[in-house]
Amino acid sequence: MHNRLNHFFYSFILLVISPLFLCAKGNPEALFAKGNSQYAKAQYKEAAQSYQEVLNDGYKSAEVYFNLGNAYYKMGEMAPAILYYEKAYKVTPGDQEISLNLQLANLKIADKIESVPEFFLTKWWKSFFLFFSAQALSGFAVAFLLLGFALLIVYLFAISISIKKPAFYAGIILLALGLLSIFIVSTQNSYLNSSSQAIVFNGTVNVKSGPDDKSKTLFVIHEGTKVTIKQNDNNWIKVELPNGNIGWVEVIAVKEI
Amino acid sequence: MKMKHYILSVLLLWTSALFANGIKSGAQDVKVTASVSKSVVGTGEAFEISFSVNGNIESFNPPALNGFQVVGGPNQSSSYSSINGNTTASMSISYDLVGVKEGEYIIGPALVVVNGKQVKSNSVKIKVVKGKAVPQGNQRNAVPQGDKVAEGNSIDISKRLFLRAVANKTNVYIGEQFSVSYKLYTNIDLVDNALDKLPDFNGFWSQEIKNNSQNVQWEIETYNGEKYHVATLKQIILFPERFGKLTLDPLAMTFVVRQAAPSNDPIEQFFGGSYKDTKYKIKSTPITINVKPLPEAGKPEGFNGAVGNFSIGANLDKSSVKANEALNYTLKITGSGNLKLLKAPELTLPADIEKYDPKVNDDIKETMTGVSGSREYSYLLIPRHEGNYTIEPLKFSYFNPATGRYVSLTSGSFPVKVAKGDPGSNVTAYATGGQQDVKTLAKDIAYIKTGNPGLTKDGEGFYGSALYYMLLCTGPVLFLAAFGYRKWYRENNRDVIKVKGRNANKIAAKHLASAQKQLISGDKKAFYENVYRGLYGYLSDKLNISAADLNKENIGEQLKLRTVNESIIDQLTDTLDLCEMARYAPISGISEQEVFDKAKTIINDIEDNA
User: Fold this and answer.
1) Which residues on B lie below 8 Å from A135 (Cβ)?
2) Which chain A residues are Cβ-neighbours of B440 within 8 angstroms?
3) Mean pLDDT, to the nearest integer, of B295-321?
């Protein structure tokens, strides 16, 4: 009798505790996979929730941002979709799929803002330094530098000239590549993170001439539009549109990328 | 004679009476009066001027009517009356005039000859002011008797003549059909009517029920306890297009009502009495329709706004064709509801079957119960390539307002076998060689990424981390260290003798390492063997002779060649002998430590000298 009670007690504890553990131990990879399978079943809302949990746990990656953007896109919520695509773009700016989805999402918002056209060389340079992600570039830089110096050390100690010579040249080339990688990764980083940008989340936002409600409304922007934050003043931020227009909006109307 | 006298006196009397009469009438005043119906008139307004004379007019000379236009007249009227044998005659001549210009006018006296006497009438003053611009002709068209008909207050007659709008439903869904009839109720004599304003059905799509007979059908109906003649003027089927409280505007009409006027004149009464025509403007009461939105719950995908009760049937005329031959796909929607507002259902076809816009055949009737009938969409399909295709079932959904639910219908699916087409039958403008571009059917976002998510904790990205900078620094630091080491190494190895001395100890230690181990563990036999082996190994390395070829003789020769002292060679030989011996018999007189030190010294000495 006693034994039976004990047994019952333990199974009860197991029943109560184990789901708690499952929740607490929400393995981010498992959550991500769960989100993917929900997305595949067109349960976009649930999928978005799963991805969001991954982010809430303090993890991030271009894949999570991208999939979360997709889920919002499928739900028809363009502002968060664009926000997360932009975040994914910041992590891996060279990803074609991210750019494609971002473009499609931008077609579905109210505002069509023509950006100032770029000089073709600038465009090439940009696509060049944005081709690899910062992660990959910094890996390259470290590998190139370590290998380059290793070859130079070989050059120092090798006795045979047939090893010394190629080791020297290869080492110099690798060092150059490593330095280039460092330069590119820092360029990319400053390009992506120097100016903070934000996505408009309110349906209609009046852009004022100054940081208060009484100022004149200069123009009106709508949900999903990307703005560059220029300045902060209490609850107001000074924003610039891609076409160069500048004005003030309330900080709650937008979400920073 | 007496008789003669009598007759004469009578005659005299008669004539005297006659004469007296004549004198009397001659003495009567003849008066000509000019009078106008209005003394102040507007330009363009007609008025009447009449000259009346209390006698027989023998000649009439009208005054100059300058500034006026004569639109009628002269009209002559005369009356005679005889009272107590006293006969009076009066005559009047009248003109209808219209003032042309503003101003004050004096119509001068008319000259009338009455009873041979010339009499002048009085003059009349007329003031002509700016007239109203209202053209009178219009009213005449609307109501022919307009100018004679007085406007009546419609409230007075509302009990006897009114319009009613009757809707068969007032609480409907968007798109649900309902009918409205406009009815005229009357128990009064109507002379004429005119339609003022048709209601505009804002927010509705309307479909009038056509009436075949031109004449209005009158019926008798009791309403609020009174009997009325009722005519249905209009019947309209309405489909609300938006939700909320929608109001149907009133229908406005003008009626001319003939009512008997009270008359004292028995003769007039005998001839049907005089009557009065009165104009009334009547409006129907507006009705409010409460339109509900279609429920969101259970709304099927692809719902196109069909509301009513329908059934569908699809048909494909052939199930096997050659490529580029035409197929007819017919979809028939039968039922009642907003059939005319239906959009052609989207037909999804395999991409290689070309579809043309459907032809629409309607067979729709409008009755008071609503719009019903059938609508047929026929699609012309042309398969362009051979193969087995399936025309997917077509989904049609509608909202049934009676049950308040959505109904989804699915047509059958049709397999189509397309055989290879006749060569040259390809009439379309495809590029020669039968090639075509891959068609983009739709644009969609790229699918989610399903591989390894590559998650990183916030702020743990490799770029910019401490590890990144550390690794970046590792290369140069190692290189500098290596460079420094090489420099130090070169510096140190410049003096050959010193190097040799420094190295000797190391070499000895290296070769005698295992011997030292045995020395510590105390295994004597193994110790000597290891010392022996160590020395031999050293010499083999040093003299570059393989261990197999090594013996005491050529060791001695080689060492001598390298100018090694005889004493050292002897010591070496002794030690080697000792070790060899110790392998078979215990050694006394010298400790293991001494042997070890000796071997070490020998190696060092050889290194120093050779």
Assistant:
1) 461-463
2) none
3) 85
CATH assignment at residue A244: 2.30.30.40
Of B374, B398, B424, which one is at a domain's C-terminal end?
Answer: B424
Indicate if A213 and A185 belong to the same structural domain: no
The strand pairing partners of B607, in sequence order, are none
Same domain, B519 and B574: yes
> In sequence order, what DSSP letters do the residues of B506-567 get, joined into one string?
HHHHHHTHHHHHHHHHT-HHHHHHHHHHHHHHHHHHHHT--GGG--HHHHHHHHHHTT--HH
Which CATH number covers residue B98?
2.60.40.740
The answer on A69 and A18 residing in a single domain is yes
pLDDT number for residue B429: 45
Which of B463, B468, B482 lies closest to A153 in CB terms? B482
Tell which of B452, B458, B463 to mutate to test the A interface (max A CBs under 10 Å): B463
Does residue B255 share a domain with residue B177?
A: yes
B352 to B317, B423, B447: CA distances (angstroms):
19, 18, 25
Look at residue A227 and tell me if it is in a domain. Answer: yes
Q: Least CA distance to B462: which residue of chain A?
A: A135
pLDDT tens digits, residue range A218-238? Answer: 888 888 888 888 888 888 899
Nearest residue of B to residue A149 by CA position?
B475
Q: What percent of chain B stands above pLDDT 90?
A: 1
Per-residue pLDDT tens for B198-249?
Answer: 787 888 888 888 766 666 778 888 887 778 888 888 888 888 888 888 888 8
Flag whether pLDDT at B599 surpasses 80: yes
Residue B455 and residue A64: Cβ atoms within 8 Å? Answer: yes
* Domain match, B81 and B150 both: no
Quote the tokens at residue A155. Answer: 């050059």
Provide the residue range defining the domain that includes A54. 2-107
Closest C-alpha to B53, from B31, B29, B77? B31
Measured in degrees and rounded to the nearest 5, phi and psi for residue A231 equal -160, 150
The CATH code of the domain that includes A62 is 1.25.40.10
Residue from A43, A85, A103, A152 whose CB has the most chain B CBs within 10 Å, to mutate:
A152
Domain boundary among A107, A135, A163: A107
Q: Tell me how far apart the alpha carbons of residues B334 and B399 are, in angstroms, rounded to a whole number.
A: 14
Q: Read off the pLDDT of residues B564-574 as tens digits, 9 standing for 90 and up.
A: 788 888 888 88
- Among B448, B453, B472, the residue with its CB nearest the CB of A70 is B448
Q: Which band of pLDDT confidence, cut at 50, 70 and 90, is reported for residue A6?
A: low
Query: What is the value of pTM for the model shown?
Result: 0.43
